[in-house]
Structure formats: C-alpha cells, structure tokens
Specification:
Layout: H1 3-13, H2 18-37, H3 40-52, H4 54-64, H5 78-85, H6 87-91, H7 95-101, H8 106-117, H9 121-126, H10 129-146, H11 154-173
Helix pairs in contact: 2-3, 2-4, 2-11, 8-10, 8-11, 10-11
Length: about 180
Amino acid sequence: MDIKTAQHDVQTTFVHGSIGQIVSGLIWLTSAALGTWVGERPAILTLVIGGMFIFPLTQLGLRLVGRPTGLPNGHPMNALAMQVAFTVPLNMLLVAPAAMYNINWFYPAFMLIVGTHYLPFIFLYGMWEFAVLAALLIFGSVGLVFLGPESFTPGGWITGVILLLFALWVQVLKK
C-alpha cells in the first residue's frame, strides 16, 4: 500500500478527523464551563480524565454515524496513530509544574501539548489543515501566557471553539 492510499484510508475512516475534534472540543468546552462556573479542580479533572476517553468516544461517534470505528488490523498507519496518541499523556507531565507555578497556565500548557500533538497528523491524515490547527493552538498557548489575561479559563474556551470550528471546516472543505 502506498502512502497516499494509507492516508486516504485514515481520512475516510476518521471522517477527516472531524468526529475526534468534535469530541475533543466538547470536552474542552465542558472543562472551561466548569472552570468558569464551578472551580479549577473540576475543570482540571474533566480535561485530564475526559481526555483519556477521547478515542473511545470518537469510536462511539463513528459508530453512531455508521462508520467503521478504526483502521483494519495490519494497516500501516495504525502504529503511527498509536505513537501519536501517547505523546499527550507523556507530555502532560509538564502541565502539572506549569499549573503549580501559575494556575492560569494550565490551559495554555495543555494547548501547547495538544497543538504539537497535531503536527504528525499532517502526515497521518495527509491533510495540511492539521498544520493550521496545530499553529493556532501552539501560538495561541504562547500568546495566552505572555499576552493574555490573568484568568484561568480563556485557553479552555478558545481551544474548545477552535476544535469545533476545525471539525466544521474540514467537513465543509472536504465535501
């Protein structure tokens, strides 16, 4: 199988990444809402624990829209997808010290991790659009730390909206 065919399989199976971005965006927005109206601890727990369920919830979403829930066994992109998935939990070890230094850096630190996590998606999906998503999250995180308000939730709200808009964008663009 050539790379273009393998990338097409990923795009087709995962609906250009839109279902996963919807799931992720909703988790980020739920976390931001809790951070705004309930407290920092529930917001943090929601994003961390909810993040662990992104792939199973994406599979459920795919099933609900009548799509396959994953690539076939032995597909050449399966190994890369798994490696990319593990970058987020491993890099989350950096979120704790950043948030302990300044609680308002929790979402920007997470944004940076998720943004860099999307860089390999450019190859995995064969979609330049993931470079735009990665850049928005990476530069948005840096901007919030250095230029943003001293407030806990803006990064959560911004990321949730960006992820949902990305899902909409790739659906409109790829039809």
